[in-house]
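User:
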Amino acid sequence: MVRCHVITRVLVLTMLHSSAVSTASPAVAADVVVYGETLAGISAAIQAARLGRSVVLLAQSNHLGGVATAGLTATDMNRSASIGGIAREFYGHIYDHYLQPSAWRGDEREKFFERAKTRTYAGKDDALRMQWVYESHVAEEILADMLQDAGVIVVRQCLIAENADAVEMTNGRILALRTTSGERHGGLTFIDASYEGDLMARAGVSHVIGREGNAAFGETMNGIHPAGFVGISRRSIDPWVRPGDPSSGLLPFIERGLWGRPGDQDNRSQAYCYRVTITDDPANRLPLVKPANFDPLWHEALVRRLQLNPDAPLHTIISLAPMPNHKADTNGLDFIGGNYAYPAATHRERARIAEMHRDYALGMLWTLAHDERIPASIREEMMPWGLPMDEFTDHGNFPHQLYVREARRMRGGFVMKEENVRREARADADHGVAIGSYALDSHVVSRVLDADGQVLNEGSRLESRFRGLPLYPISYHALVPQAKECRNLLVPVCLSATHVAYASIRMEPVFMVLGQAAGAAAALSIESRVAVQDVSYPRLRSVLISAGQILDHPSIQAVPPLAPAPAVLP
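Assistant: Predicted structure:
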C-alpha cells in the first residue's frame, strides 16, 4: 500500500553558521535549501539528504510534485533505459503500487495496459520494473514517503518575497532567502528547482525569457516561426468576430501580423495549459460545467476549425491518454497567447493568469461536449467524461499546478544548444550529468493573420517525434550560474539552454535526473568547501553512478525510442 504522511512544518532549526542568523524574523536553516516542489526539487532534496546534509524543501504550494502530480500523468518518457537513480526509484514505486489488486477499482491491469500502450510510450517497462502512467494522488503520496524517508524537512505554501531584499547575498554567495510571510531561510548552498526561476532571478543571475534569434548561437529552429494554417490544408478559419466583417475586429488572441522576421528573437514563450484529469467512471465522475467566467469568443477559433473539418476525430484536437481506473490525462488545452506575461510576473499576477487558464481549459472541455456547432461525433465522445471525485479534493477536483512549459532560462557557465541535442558533428556537451532524448517539442506560441488574411499558428516545432533524437548528454555546467554572479546556487529546471534545446530537455523525468545531480553537487560543494562551479566532476560522476544514474549514453545508444503517442494537431 502507498503510505501517506503529512510532512510537518518546522519553523526553527539550529543555525548552521553565524552569518545566516537573523533576529528580525523566524528562520529555518539547513545545509541545502531547495526552492520548488517539482520533481527536480524533490530529487535534489533527497539526494543531498542521502549524502548526509540537512535539507529544507520550500514548496510553493500545499502539494508535492509540481505538474507531475497535477494531471501530467502520461509521462513523456520515450527511452526508459536512460532514466536512472531517484527517478527510477520513483517510477519503480509506482510500478509496485499498481501490481497490487487493491490499486485497481473497476479496472484491470492487463486490460488497462493493452489500451494504453500506444498512447503513453507503453506506460511501463517490466524488465526495469518502472511505470510512468499513474494517478496524481498516488504519485504525490509516494513522493511524500520518499522525502520523509530521506529526512527532508518540507515547508509548504512558501513563496519567495518580491521585495529588493528577498535574497541576502555577500561576496557572490546567497546567505538566505525570505518569503512573502516574512520567514528567513538560511543555508550553505541553494537550489532553484521552480518552474519560474524566481530565486535565480532575485539573486541577480543572468537569464532570458522567450526565444533567441537563430543568429545568436548558429541555430536553425529558434526565434519567430510561422507554422501552418489554423484550419485545413491551405484554408484557414475566418478571423473576424463577425465572419467576413473586418470592422468587428479579430477574434481574441489573433494578431494582425508578425512582430519581427522569421528567425528573429522575441520575449514570448510556448503556450501553457492545464493537464486536466478526467474520468468516464459514473461512480467517480463530476459533470463538466461551464465556468463562471466563460467567454465563448475564446473558443470560437476551435468551433470554426471543426466547422471546416467536421469529420475530424477528437484526438486531433485534444489527446486523452489512458490512466488507471478509467481516467485520462488531457493534453492540447493550450491557451495560445495567454501566458506572455507569466514568466516575470508577480505572484498575484501569476495567480490571475493561472485562473484564466483554468477558465479556458474548463470552457474548452465544456464547448467540445455541449456546443451544438461542434460535430456530433466529438460531442458524443466527450459527453461521458467529467472531473474525478478522488483527485485534487482540496482544489475543486481540478489540478493545482499550471503546466508551465517554459519560463526563464539561465545564462550559465555553458549553454545547451541545438547542436548539442542533435549531436551535430558529435557536438556533445562535456561533463554530462543526465541524458536527453525527447523530440524537439515546442507548442504553439502565437496566432497571427498573414498578408493574405489567413490565420497561422506561430512557434510550434515537433521534430524527431517518431524516431527520437540521438541520446545526448546534458552538461553539469548548464546547471550552474557564471561564477562571477553566484557561487552557491544550482538551477536544474530553468537551466542554461536555448529555447530549441529546452524544447527537448524540458521533460519531467529528465528534470528529476537533473535535480538529483544538483542535489549531489550541492552536498559535494559543502563537503569540499568549493563553489558549485568548482565541484570535482570525477567525484560528482562517481557519486551519481553509485546512486544508480545512467550517464554513459553510448552504452544504450542502440536502444530505440518506444512507440509514441499520436500527435495532437496544432
